[in-house]
Amino acid sequence: MGAEDDPTAIRSIAVSPADVVDAYAYTRENPGEAVLRITPPFHGRMRARIHVYRRDDAELTGAVHVDPAAVLDSEARAAYPQFRPKDGEQPADSGDSSLTPDQRRKRHAAAVETWRERARESLTETVSIETEHGRRQVDLKSLG
Description:
Blueprint: E1 12-15, H1 17-29, E2 33-38, E3 45-47, E4 49-53, H2 58-61, E5 64-66, H3 74-78, H4 101-119, E6 126-131, E7 134-142
Parallel strand pairs: 1-3, 1-7
Antiparallel strand pairs: 2-4, 2-5, 6-7
Region (Disordered): 76-144
Domain DUF8009: 4-144
InterPro entries: DUF8009
């Protein structure tokens, strides 16, 4: 592995808050997974961009994948609106049985959009990345 392929060189990661919330929401709502992807060559300051996949190819490409949940604070993660309640929970709109499935989807989409606006302000200051030498903390910088 050359120095440019070694993610231990990374000191900070720049991310778009929109990429973070889009990746988090995508993974919650879809069968694929969205991550923040950092691709070689690696250096001190890197840019992470949203990447959607069904099969993780990071080992083949040498990319580092960051879970968007790790970049959002716990309050933002907990506030994500649930469309389908977990076992034993009532849906948020269960008191209004007059809603059609389409109305429920629209209400959920509006709640997610409100969540996105708030969550863009809820990024952590550091994030842990995986390297072949173990996990390490790097600074997180918000773009925009």
